[in-house]
Each structure stands twice: as C-alpha cells, then as structure tokens.
Amino acid sequence: MNRKCKAIVSALFILSLVLLTAPMRLSAAEAAPIGEGATVQGQTNAQEITAAGTAKQVPLLTLNQCIETALNKNPTVLASIYGVDVNRSRVGEARYSYYPQLSASAAYTRLGPLSSQTSTFGGPGAYDQYTSGISLNQNLLDFGKTSQQVDISKYNLESARSDMNTTQDAVILSVKQSYYGVLKARRDRDVAADVLKQFQLHLDQAKGFYDVGTKARIDVIKAEVDLSNAKLSLINAENALNIAWVTLNNVMGTPDAAEYAIEDNLSFQRFAITLEEAKARAFENRPDLKSIISKRQAAEANISYARSGYYPVLSGFASYNWAGETTSTLDHSWNAGVLLTVPLFSGFLTVHQAAEARSSFYILKANEESLRQQIQLDIQQAYLNLQAAEASIATAELASAQAKENLDLANGRYAAGVGSPIEVSDAFATYVAAQANYTSALSNYKIDQATIEKAMGVR
Fold first, then answer.
1. How many C-beta neighbours within 10 Å does residue 263 have?
2. Which terminus of the chain has a smaller tally of CB atoms within 10 A, N or C?
3. How far is CA 441 from CA 82, 393, 437, 445, in A?
4. What angle is formed at CA 290 by the lines to CA 284 and CA 291, rounded to 5 degrees?
5. What is the pLDDT of residues 62-88, one digit of tens each?
C-alpha cells in the first residue's frame, strides 16, 4: 500500500472515531451551557463528581432553602432581629410612668453621742437605731409626656422592624446573586472541561496525521499549546467555582457548611411587569421607606414631648415608716400627699430641646423625599436592566448554537484532513466565548429579576 493510500485510510479511521465519540464529547456542553431547561450534575439526583471521577450523594438545596438558611443563620439578619427586641423593650420602658412606683427600705445605724451629751432616746453613750419603710409614688398628670414617650417608642419599634426587613431583603438579594454565581461558574467549568477533552482529541488527531505524514509537526505543537491553555482555563474555572461556593456559604452564614449541591434553575422564565406597576409596588412595600416614615413620625411626636418641659407635673405619694432603738420597740409613722412640680426656669433647656426636635423632624422629612426619589431611580434602572437582559438572551442563545455548529464543522474539516489547526483554535475560542455569553445572559436576567424584586420590596 503506497503512502497516499495509507493517509486516506488513516484519515477515514480518525473521522469515524470523531463521529463515534462526538455524542460523548459534547454531552457535558449540551447538558450545561446550551439550551433552556438544561440540567447539570447534582440537579436531579444530587450527585457530585469527585476528582477521581466517582459520583457521591450530597444534599440538594433549592434557592428557597438557601434563602431560608440565610434568614436563620446570617449574623447581619440576627443582629437586626435583636435590634427589634431592643426597641420592643424600650416601649415597655416608656410605659413605666403609667404604673405606681413601690419601694421598701431598711437601715441599721450605730450612733455615738457627742461629748457630755446623752442619746436622743434618753440613754447615755452610744446606741443603735433601726429604720424601715415602704413608699409609694404615682404619676397623676404630666400633660401627655408619658403617652408621647410611649408613642415615640412605638414608632421606633416599627422603624426597627422595617430596618430588619430591609436587612433581610439585602441578604436575600446577596443569596440569589451568589446562588446564580455558583450556577454560572459551574456551567463555565463544564464548558472548560469539555473543551479540554476536545483539545486532547484534537492532539491525538494531529499526532495521527503527523505519523502518516499528512500534517506537519507544527500542527502537533499547536495542538499541544491549545491543550495546555485548555488545562489552564479549566484550573481557573475550577477556582472560580470554588470561590463562588465560598461566597454562597458566607452569605448564608454557614462558612463551614458540609458539601452540598444546588438546583440548576437558570432556565429563562419571563418576569412580566410594567414600569408603573413596579413603581407603585415599590412605594407601597419598600421597608426602608416604611422605616423612615416611622422615624419621621417619631420625630414629630418628639416635638410635643420636648415642649412638655414647659408644663407642670402632678404626682401622688404615700409612705409608712418604722424607727427605734430595737426591733421590738419601733415607732410607727405614715404620710401621704400630692406634689405639684412647676418648672420656672431651666436655663432655656426646654427651648433648645424643642428647637432640636423640630430640626430633626425637618431632616427626616427631607430624607424621606430623597429616598422616594432614590426608589424611583432604583426601579427605573432595574427595569431597564431587566429589559436589556431579556433582549440579550435570544441573541446569546442563537450565537451559542451557531458557535457549536461552527466548532463541529471545524473539527470535521480537520478530521478529514482539509482543515487547519488555527481554524480549529478559532472555532474553540468562539465556542467558549459564546457559551460564556449565553450563560452570563441567563444569570444576569435572574440577578436583574432579583434586583427589581428587591427594589419593589417584594420577595
């Protein structure tokens, strides 16, 4: 058999090998980055592939489960919950003036006489004195000072609850961003792994052609360089995936979490809402707006509270006392009455307190308007980003399919001996970029949807 016949037989053998292994080579790419509703390892059967290539069972978490974990374990959320508890206690503290103040006291005193004098009880020298008593005080009238203080505490409690919701919404958005970041990194890793396998096959083809003399040594060297670059890309993709996992664990408040898998829900599902609907829902639901409204109401009530320093306070009191030199011979006494305290001059303290309260109220009123404008800006930006992300998905999907077809043609041409290694490398580069763009388009749409949901104050 002459050299030409050997080359033809070798080319036909390699072409048949390519056709037989194509479904296996492309399965990872088709399962992960191409097409809507695709699945990846760990979605349905919660299996992860180890470095040794074996599968192991791990827990499978959905997005909602990750969010629930974060709301229960994230320290920022826990701190906001305790902040609500603090303000709830302050409401009880503000109510203390509604209730009588009852106290008891007891004392023992050893008294020494002055020189040349007797004790007050008629005995010479030092003596003992025992005293005890019970006293009762009750605020009768303070011209609304206590009730205003209670109202202020209630407004602050509502503000704290809204702040807690704002914190939770921020954590939920971070969980979604990290969750989709893991899915994107995992799909990118799968593409890099698939490209590595195909470059290894390309190297085998180049060596086969070189051995039979149909291709030059430069094809082999080019294939080896491409394979090395593919290995480096896979290392970087694996590292990006590991960082994405660490980020998700940290956001959930479980930095030392055991290994688990997450459900792949990057498939496109349109989020239908108009700009006006989004604005209306934001002004109705945004917890940060509710918080500043409660703070503004508290500041308004604080003006009246500060002015109450001009008014008198009427209180009642009563006490019962015991005193004597021994515990068996105690004298008894009692007293009761009312006390009117009228502020005459306090060094202009009340004047300045009232002025401070008014200024604080105007500050919060201006901040409320500023927040309303910021909310409107947030909604407009999130809506425009969502629309742009939706428009990019169809284009990215088409480019992904075209890049895959181009790669198949380039591989086929090279396997048939009519293509060049540069053509194959360019096709691989286009394929990887198109796959990454499509995955990014899906991920960006999910993140933009989560962003506009946060901007609207809905979960």
1. 20
2. N
3. 39, 5, 6, 6
4. 160
5. 999 999 999 999 999 999 999 999 999
pLDDT tens by residue, 338-351:
999 999 998 999 99
Single-letter amino acid code for the residue at 352: H
Angle formed by the axes of helices 145-212 and 63-73, nearest 10°: 130
Q: Between 210 and 79, where is the model more confident?
A: 79
Handedness of CA 40, 42, 47, 53 (dihedral sign): positive
Q: State the Cα–Cα distance between residues 448 and 301, nearest whole angstrom.
A: 40
Give me the pLDDT at residue 209, please.
83
Spell out the residues 6+ positions from residue 236 whose beta carbon is closer than 8 angstroms to its own.
Answer: 192
Task: Give all domains of the chain, ordered by start, each with its CATH number.
Answer: 3-98+142-311+347-456 (1.20.1600.10)
3-state secondary structure 200-229: HHHHHHHHHHHHHCCCCHHHHHHHHHHHHH
Distance (Å, whole) CA 326 – CA 203 = 109
- Under 8 Å CB-to-CB from 341, ≥6 apart: which residues? 312, 313, 314, 315
Q: Where are the alpha helices (DSSP H) in 252-318?
A: 275-285, 287-307
Residue 245 phi/psi, 5-degree rounding, is -65, -45
Show the tokens assigned to 112.
Answer: 């020494």
One-letter identity of residue 361? F
3-state secondary structure of 49: strand
Least confident of 21-35, 231-245, 270-284: 21-35
In this predicted structure, the answer to whether residue 6 has a pLDDT above a threshold of 80 is: no
